[in-house]
Amino acid sequence: MTTWLRELPKAELHLHIEGTLEPELMFALADRNGVTLPYDSVEAVRAAYDFEDLPSFLNLYYQGMGVLHTQADFFDLAMAYFARAREDGVAHVELSFDPQAHLVRGVPLEAPFEGLLAACREADSRYGISSALIMSFLRDRDPVEALEVFEQAAPWHSMIDAVGLDSAERDHPPGRFAKVFARARALGIPGVAHAGEEGSAAYIREAWETLEVCRIDHGVRCLEDADLVAMLRERQIPLTVCPLSNVKLKVTPTLTEHPLPALREAGLNVTLNSDDPAYFGGGMLDNYVACHDAFGWTRDDFIDMTRNAVQAAFMAEERREALL
Ligand code: ES4
Ligand code: ZN
Predict the structure, then answer these.
(1) What does pTM read for this prediction?
(2) Catalytic residue among 12, 197, 206, 234
(3) Record's PANTHER family (predicted)?
(4) What ipTM was predicted for this assembly?
(5) Closest ligand 1 atom number to CA of residue 280
(6) Is 197 an active-site residue?
(7) For strand 192-195 and strand 162-166, is the pairing parallel, antiparallel, or unpaired?
(8) What confidence score (pLDDT) does residue 29 get?
(9) DSSP state letters, 75-118
(10) What's the gap in Å between 18 CA and the centre of ligand 1?
(11) Are 279 and 61 within 8 A, CB to CB?
(12) Cβ proximity of 137 and 103 under 8 Å
């Protein structure tokens, strides 16, 4: 089954490119940029990846990305990810990144934008992997700053496939970001948002109503609200679910207890994704294999979810038809 799952052309819709930074590359980039890491070894970094919840992960995630400075760093980061994605049989990737987390460290927008866009072109020509770019805003920072950063990114607006919303969810309701999402929409740029990961079902409804997003990242806590489930089912709003992430961040105690089967039984539009593979113990294939082991899903189940992802992807119609 693992071989079959590897060969199934998969689309990854929920991936933080900064969360693909493996400890080996973290050390190499620290050396290159003269950054001192608070760890002695790759093993010590991996040993620190034992999280209690989303905030405890985010602390290490923001610390880890401190080694990323130049356009070349972002290019190398994304190419290392694309090489692994190719081994996993990933055909299409939507990379989200957090420009504010770099700006606050003095890294200008050009570095992530130009580095990631160059890597996306290279992944297409070298591996035949198509991609999309999602500019995400940090919900635990000022929404006015998000709008300013979006305007500063004007030279790249035509290269952005969507805007996103991530970081610490609790006490940071999505509605505060309505302005920047409306501004992006006016320019023809759609929105996606993390909701219902550590936050309640109410944040999923709020993201849908106030940000007019076309997909929900995670969304696993929707089951707490039957009316919301009915709405998500009727509209077939895609949920980008990240099974291994949810276990690592204790959204669910074990994968066996994950609400994925219940979400699918409720008729929801579910996709499988890896979120922050370097931190959560596996890429796309590991997530698929873990779901097979936990839920006993058949080939038809996985075909169904990869079709959902291809249908929900930001890609040219020609590419979509080739993957369906
Ligand atoms: C994230 Cl798992 C997760 N949730 C929210 N924000 C994030 N940023 C990177 N990974
Ligand atoms: Zn995420």
Answers:
(1) 0.98
(2) 197
(3) ADENINE DEAMINASE
(4) 0.98
(5) 2
(6) yes
(7) unpaired
(8) 98
(9) HHHHHHHHHHHHHTTEEEEEEEE-HHHHHTTT--THHHHHHHHH
(10) 10
(11) yes
(12) no
